[in-house]
Amino acid sequence: MSNLNRRxxxxxxxxxxxxxxxxxxxxxxxxxxxxxxxxxxxxxxEGLGAFETWLTYQEQLYADxxxxxxHLKENPFALPKMIVIVLDADKxxxxxxxxxx
Length: 101
Description:
Layout: H1 2-15, E1 29-33, H2 55-74, E2 83-87, H3 89-97
């Protein structure tokens, strides 16, 4: 009988029965660049530097990370939601000039 109990305990340890772990994955960040029609003037995005340094990128990232933290607080065993950031060179230029509305 003790041999059977030992086997059951070994299998339960391998399967982690009754133990819940929180996923340790960080959210995936997806960047989408907005394309404008040919008639609209556009800014060259390469002249603005790396996307990670953009003000609009940082604002969107911070807002989505805050929303993800709230989501994970309410659902502790859920996976973090994917963060989608829309990159727009014209909006970034306005944000840098202080014309952001």
